[in-house]
Amino acid sequence: MKTPFPQVLQLPSARSFSALPVILVVLGIIAWSSWYTVPSDSVAILQRFGKLHAEVPPGLHFKIPLGVDVATILPVKRQLKQEFGFYTEGASNPDQYSDTPRDESPMVTGDLNVGLVEWVVQYRISEPTHYLFAVREPGATLRDVSESVMREVVGDRTVDEVLTIGRQEIEVEALLKMQKLATLYTMGISIDQVQLKNINPPAPVQESFNEVNQAQQEKEKLINEARRDYNKVVPLAEGEKDQRIREAEGYRLKRINEAEGDVSRFNAVFTEYQKAPAITQQRLYLETMQDILPGVENKVVVDEGMKNLLPLLNLNQKQTTPAEAQP
Questions:
Q1: What is the similarity comment for this entry (predicted)?
Q2: What CATH code would you report for 80-201?
Q3: Which of 73, 179, 186 is nearest to 135 (CA)?
């Protein structure tokens, strides 16, 4: 009878124990990278092996790890902006200002002057797939489009228009042209606003331009004050004129009515007089005395038949003047 060889138990080697944590870490990284979150103001464009797969809404989502699925998050509900001629420190948008050192603000106007123009373009991502795949660098392309359009619009105007009265017209025209080019290039961008910030002349002539600008403002101020005085004085004069006309019209109507009333009363009295002259004369006499006597302070009523009146009054004698009394 053969004696069986004893079975030897093989224990795991130290190398296998050292590789286990690495495997767990790799598996944890793979599991962690399989999930991603899309913010509420954004959407994610999911690419599988580099090909467009789906447009993912906000929320927590799963993807195939190890580079099979790549999710690009785009803030479609957020208003983005680009700054030209200046920049804001700490900006979160990488396309807000240009990384390459270039001065975009100097521009030549239509009358061959130079102005330093600073402006802001505010836009939204309206079509995420076009924004990612139709144009290679949409942010840089939008900067080039904006600068080209602004130079064209400013170049069609004089420096006085650019510095003073033409700002709003420049903003509107630049917005329309930028949106037209963005649509033509299928950039997937909707431009909301173009806003001019500071517009200044070059430093060597800035003092002279400021003096001209101050003179223009003083001119506008004097014109506004003159218009204010005009609007204050002229309506007042017009009102007084209308008041005088209405007063004269009222006085005219009053005099006409009074005259017509007098005529009507005279005709009525004359009609009654023709019917009874004596009674009418007596009534007119009594009415006249009724109007006169209340104004007389001392009244002496004498009867015609009275004979024994005191002679001191000399009522029956003719009054003589001093000239008649002289011989």
A1: Belongs to the band 7/mec-2 family. HflK subfamily.
A2: 3.30.479.30
A3: 186
Owner of token pair 């942010």? 139
The candidate with the shortest Cα–Cα distance to 157, out of 119, 196, 115, is 115
**Which uninterrupted H or E stretch holds 257?**
helix 206-275
Angle, CA 151 vertex, CA 147 and CA 152 arms, to 5°:
120
Exposed/middle/buried for residue 22 (C-beta within 10 Å: 0-12, 13-18, 19+): exposed
Question: Distance between CA 44 and CA 55 in Å, rounded?
Answer: 6
Under 8 Å between Cβ of 44 and 55: yes
Q: Which residue has 């080019």 as its token pair?
A: 181
Q: Any residues with CB less than 8 A from the CB of 153 and at least 6 apart, and which?
A: 170, 173, 174, 177
Q: Which residues pair with 92 in a beta bridge?
A: none
Residue where the block lists tokens 């993912």? 56
Kindly report whether the global pTM for this prediction surpasses the value 0.90. Answer: no
Instruction: List the chain pLDDT tens, one digit each, 327 residues.
Output: 444 444 444 545 545 556 777 777 777 777 777 888 999 999 999 999 989 889 999 999 988 888 888 999 999 999 999 999 888 877 777 778 776 656 778 888 988 888 889 999 999 999 999 999 999 899 999 999 999 999 999 999 988 888 878 889 999 999 999 999 999 999 999 999 999 988 888 778 778 877 877 888 899 899 999 999 888 888 888 888 899 999 999 999 999 999 999 888 888 888 877 887 888 788 888 888 888 878 777 767 666 666 665 554 555 555 555 555 554
Q: Identify the CA nearest to 153 among candidates 210, 211, 84.
A: 84
d(CA 54, CA 46): 5
Where in the chain are the domains?
A: 19-74, 80-201, 205-283
